[in-house]
Fold:
Amino acid sequence: MADTFRKETLDKDLSRVGEIEAATSALNRPMVGVGIAFLFMVLVIAFVSIGLSGSPAMITIVAAAAIGAYMAMNIGANDVANNVGPAVGAKAMTMGGALIIAAICESAGALIAGGDVVSTISKGIVDPAGLAETHTFIAAMMAALVAAGLWVNLATAINAPASTTHSIVGGVMGGGIAAAGFATVDWGIMGAIAASWVISPLLGGVIAAFFLYLVKSLVIYRKDKIAAARRWVPIFIAVMFGAFAAYLTMKGLKKIIKVDGATIWMIGATSFALSWAIFHPLIRSQSEGMENRNQSIRKLFRIPLIISAALLSFAHGANDVANAVGPLAAIVSATSADTVSAKVGIPLWVMLIGAAGISLGLLLFGPKLIRLVGSQITKLNPMRAYCVALSAAITVIFASWFGLPVSSTHIAVGAVFGVGFFRELWTARSSRRRRYLAMQRSQGGAINENSTDEALESDDTDSQPSPEVTRQRRLVRRAHVTTIAAAWIITVPATAVLSALIFHLIRPFV
Structure:
């Protein structure tokens, strides 16, 4: 009896020890990422210090490099989720595969197409004449970097996809106002940027909802789904490749090659034709022997989704690396030449810091926002994720054509919202859906009278809610709508105020 009692006591003690170890491991896991990020910043400091040994401006440049590395990691942790989140949420990619593909493509975009020249005053919102004094300019740029990095870090911590472009714009504006007053800001440009808070998500949402409507109407709600898929899926994929070709030419490769509008359209049309010629027989072959159900159709979108995630990551690396290294390059130029230039070259070592920081931030902290965008706002499958990815490319093309300043973050997240809200509307009001249910009943199909849109798309029709409940069903989490919208609205003013405060703190030391 005593032995049994001792054994039970020992088992309980070991169980408690196991629980403590598991809890400690869970607590330490985030600290490992923080430790690696800190080590990266230390390595950047050492690398720059050795390269600039003996330079009178070494301390300033080293500090700016560390801050630039911090900003780059925050961009990777927050912004890149928009590119791969939908594909991960749709289970077209695993989390590990998405992180590896995005890290490689982000770095390639930054190093190959990131450009060798950037504007020192982000988006032209501040008059360079107001920051002509070198030390004032350096302090303003450092304040902008610190403020933007801190804000994006906070947004990541509260699970809010924030626009890093808007963060750095707000930082530059706040630093400029602190250095030279309100008159130095171009308020017309700031008004256009503020308008993009509304334009970006609305455009992304409407375009994504439109393509989801086409997918439902032309494929999902057809009697012979496989025949419809053979006809339309190659066209949908070709539209995506044509849009991405134009998108990459217009945005991702704009710093390598200069092309006019007609050439961009020609490149897009050529890519459309080639991709259709490739995928039309491929989809027909892949669909042979498939069951006439939506689960089969989902498989046809998986490879295009992986490709779209890679292309979006490449274009993002090419465009948004400037958010991290632009102010850093400006500081390096100002300290070297002792003058402020409207445009400056980006040294290779500066671009490497940006590319490495974005990739490391993605690998260490990216999964949190990837899960949010991919599955927590609304449920995505490959067809819906396809609509989100396509919307991101088409919206940027449309906005750029009309000169509208838009945020890729706002577009992608707006597209996710658009897909979710459209599904709510479709489930409650679609006459095509009601006719489809009637047809299934008349043919003795398994779908019962209370089937929902989600059930139709998953081929799972058991235990569905009543029509009254279906009409009220919410497929988008409202809490995320509120949190994300609030973060978007206050990003520029918050980073501006923070940058102004930081400017006054660091100005005496620069």
About this structure: The chain has 18 helices and two strands.
